[in-house]
């Protein structure tokens, strides 16, 4: 039985190659003289990289605490529904664009995981698609100007792209009035020499346009030129067919505090910037390009939603107590922003394990028997049913993850 109900939490850093060098180290207040990429900071109980809880008995794994003391940490209702802490909370710094990807539904993830288990594909194999039986819906809230690809453009917009890009004109009849599946299958199964022949002149042209300053980040050519502009054409090798997706998908621009939810089957990729990301506690990613990792085209296409969408950029719903909620249509997680000016307060009672991360400023959090001072770069875990009050000496911006 834990007397304290509020604890400092230490997350786990992921040094993926696409990460930036400054944002996360500066935010955490740590040295990066080794010039390592700091891509993600994980806060949660994912078994591959669980956070540690700073308790009077020392630093303990959150994953282990959730397993051993689930009644206190996540609550019996969450444990009955999920059997674990159902979310994973992250801070991301995207320097180079991430892979084109799709996440499966819960039913598809369960079937895919069990099929790979039966086939004897090792869990740590680079050819494995399904690492667990869970779905992976996710929401991101921008911490800076943030750019991403999200879903196919609507039929009229995509038809215009195919007409305006000379290399894509042979694809007009394949797409027709809006056959996203036929277009995607054609491009993803095209012979590599045909991909190279179609895309190489397009890429060369975009590089020239970007060098002249004729492109903006709202245009696909800018990102294609960023991808290929650093090296001469003889070093390109085979052109990545993910380039098609940069033209076919919506390019979404978000400002700090704006959010985008990504459900199962919606193809997407992060392009550039910093964000807070919250997702179901899963590592199931089906990739379709722009990555050195395993790409499984048939599996990707099997789970892609082939329809044009207008992206929903959420500004959040302001509640009392300085809290802004971003509604997400899933049971696994909820996210809110806590923005307080000097001497403002926020009162709440944790309905599940809550994780609050401070992005800017500092705050004091007073629970029923314990208070903590939490500053920029620090994280706090609040156990289920604990009532608490947040106050700030000079202003604070924080994000909270919870189970709704």
From TrEMBL:
Name of the protein described by the UniProt record: mannose-6-phosphate isomerase
**Main EC class of this protein?**
isomerase
Gene name per UniProt? manA
The Phosphomannose isomerase type I catalytic domain, residue ranges: 6-153
Give the matching PANTHER family. Answer: MANNOSE-6-PHOSPHATE ISOMERASE
Return one GO MF term: zinc ion binding
Positions annotated as active site in the UniProt record: 287
Q: Does the keyword Cytoplasm apply?
A: no
Q: What are the protein's UniProt keywords?
A: Isomerase, Metal-binding, Zinc
- UniProt GO BP: carbohydrate metabolic process; GDP-mannose biosynthetic process
Q: Where does Zn(2+) bind?
A: 101, 103, 138, 268
Q: Which reaction does it catalyse?
A: D-mannose 6-phosphate = D-fructose 6-phosphate
């Amino acid at each position: 039985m834990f007397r304290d109900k509020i604890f400092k939490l230490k997350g786990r850093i992921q040094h993926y190659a696409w990460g930036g060098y400054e944002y996360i180290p500066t935010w955490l207040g740590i040295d990066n003289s080794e010039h390592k990429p700091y891509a993600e900071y994980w806060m949660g109980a994912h078994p591959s990289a669980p956070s540690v809880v700073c308790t009077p008995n020392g630093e303990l794994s959150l994953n282990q605490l959730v397993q051993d003391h689930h009644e206190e940490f996540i609550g019996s209702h969450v444990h009955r529904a999920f059997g674990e802490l159902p979310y994973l909370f992250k801070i991301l710094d995207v320097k180079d664009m991430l892979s084109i990807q799709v996440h499966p539904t819960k039913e598809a993830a369960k079937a895919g995981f069990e099929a790979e288990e039966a086939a004897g594909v090792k869990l740590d194999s680079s050819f494995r698609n399904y690492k667990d039986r869970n779905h992976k819906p996710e929401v991101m809230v921008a911490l800076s100007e943030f750019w991403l690809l999200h879903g196919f453009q609507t039929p009229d917009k995509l038809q215009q792209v195919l007409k305006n890009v000379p290399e894509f004109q042979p694809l007009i009849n394949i797409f027709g009035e809006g056959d996203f599946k036929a277009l995607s299958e054609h491009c993803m199964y095209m012979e590599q020499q045909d991909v190279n022949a179609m895309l190489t002149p397009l890429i060369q042209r975009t590089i020239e346009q970007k060098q002249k300053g004729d492109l903006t980040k709202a245009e696909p050519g800018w990102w294609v030129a960023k991808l290929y502009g650093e090296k001469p054409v003889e070093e390109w090798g085979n052109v990545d067919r993910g380039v098609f997706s940069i033209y076919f998908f919506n390019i979404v621009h978000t400002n700090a505090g704006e959010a985008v939810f990504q459900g199962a089957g919606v193809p997407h990729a992060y392009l550039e910037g910093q964000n807070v990301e919250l997702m179901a506690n899963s590592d199931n990613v089906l990739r379709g390009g722009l990555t050195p990792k395993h790409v499984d085209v048939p599996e990707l296409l099997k789970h892609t939603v082939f329809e044009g969408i207008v992206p929903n950029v959420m500004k959040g719903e302001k509640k009392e107590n300085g809290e802004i909620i971003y509604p997400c249509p899933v049971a696994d997680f909820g996210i809110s922003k806590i923005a307080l000016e000097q001497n403002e307060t926020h009162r709440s009672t944790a309905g599940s394990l809550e994780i609050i991360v401070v992005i800017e400023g500092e705050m004091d959090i007073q629970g029923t028997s314990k208070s903590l001072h939490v500053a920029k770069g620090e994280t706090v875990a609040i156990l289920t049913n604990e009532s608490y009050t947040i106050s700030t000496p000079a202003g604070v911006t924080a994000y909270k993850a919870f189970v709704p």
